[in-house]
Amino acid sequence: MCGRARCTLSPSQAARAFGFPTTTLVAGGGTGGGCGGGDAPAVPLLRMDRYRPSYNVSPGTYLPVGTVRARPAGYDGGGDMDGEVSVIQCMKWGLVPSFTGKKEKPDHFRMFNARSESIKEKASFRRLIPNNRCLVAVEGFYEWKKDGPKKMPYYIHFQDQRPLVFAALFDTWTNSEG
């Protein structure tokens, strides 16, 4: 994917794009069937207060990500027998490997694009494949075509406006501030 994307998806739109369940909200706040009011993800939402929908998202920006996590304390919804559940979590786009020094400034542009043809060649990506996979949904992304000295942006998206869902990898890094 290119270095810019559009992501203005709501949590329920992201849940549907990931294939996660949603619930219908009845006008008045309860759950039920078909009385309007919209819908909501039927999975836990983690740190979504960090997400800011934008038409121009770049590496280092928070995006809604679909993944499987250990069941949060007090969660009584669905999930598998091993105590895992699908979640939508806000994460920064651009890999900062866990082995990055605590005092180093993270460079989200350095590793924001894991290419399928070389993913197993780079240790930073290869070690994440077994347990740190996730999904990222956006409405589209931008590619630039060079025409002499000028660059022309092209917006790549589905004609029917459904979200694009990308396979992704994640890691956890802690800076000196915790």
From TrEMBL:
GO terms for biological process: protein-DNA covalent cross-linking repair; proteolysis. It comes from Oryza sativa subsp. indica. Belongs to the SOS response-associated peptidase family. This is Embryonic stem cell-specific 5-hydroxymethylcytosine-binding protein. It comes from the Eukaryota. GO terms for molecular function: lyase activity; peptidase activity; single-stranded DNA binding. Keywords: Covalent protein-DNA linkage, DNA damage, DNA-binding, Hydrolase, Lyase, Protease. Gene3D superfamilies: SOS response associated peptidase-like. InterPro entries: SRAP, SRAP-like.
